[in-house]
Amino acid sequence: MTVGNLCNHNVATVGSDATVAEAARRMREAHVGDLVVTEQRNGLTVPIGMITDRDLVIEVLAAGVEPGALAIRDLMSRDIVTVHEDNGLEFALSEMRRRGLRRVPVVDAKNALIGILSVDDVIDHLARLLGHVADAYRIERHTEQKMRP
Fold it and tell me: How far apart are CA 87 and CA 11, in angstroms?
């Protein structure tokens, strides 16, 4: 399974010049806890950072900073890890574990953003696989009962 097949292609994004208040509204509208910060390069949408709801709470709300006073570029994580759409799931999980990440942007061969892979996506995939294993056992048992009453 490649990352490109498993990732969510509906990615919530924000520009680095957006305010913290705008980013919070975007998270609420998209029902997500993170945004990929992007910029346009040669007609491509390229990830340059990440901002999470936790960043907003800890760095803005808890610190008593006015949400309209800061731009996303002031808070975003700049040292982001991306994975390529052709990477395998094991590689992506290894990178996520190495950096302690729950989500990573997925890019194509030109480094354009095409999706985001989250731990939730992986858990859903594993649950489907385990469901297939359980089905195999159930079908085997049913077949044997029919053949050997």
Answer: 18
- What would the pLDDT profile of 5-43 be if each residue is shown by its tens digit? 999 999 999 999 999 999 999 999 999 999 999 999 999
Do the strands 34-41 and 13-15 form a parallel or antiparallel pair, or are they unpaired? parallel
CA angle 43, 48, 50 (to 5 degrees): 130
For residue 35, give the nearest of 13, 54, 53, 64 by alpha carbon: 13
Q: Could you report the per-residue pLDDT of 81-120, keeping only the tens digit for each?
A: 999 999 999 999 999 999 999 999 999 999 999 999 999 9
Question: Which pTM does this prediction carry?
Answer: 0.85
Burial code (b: 16+ CB inside 10 Å, e: under 16) for 56-65 equals: beeebeeeee
DSSP state of 88: B
> For residues 39 and 71, what is the distance between their CA atoms, to the nearest angstrom?
14
Reported as half-sphere exposure (CB side, CA atoms, 13 A), residue 125 has a value of 16
Closest by alpha carbon to 41, among 116, 117, 118, 107?
A: 107
* Contact between residue 109 and residue 46 where contact means Cβ atoms under 8 Å apart: no
Q: Dig out the tokens for 118 from the structure.
A: 């989250």
* Distance, CA of 118 to CA of 8 (rounded, Å): 8
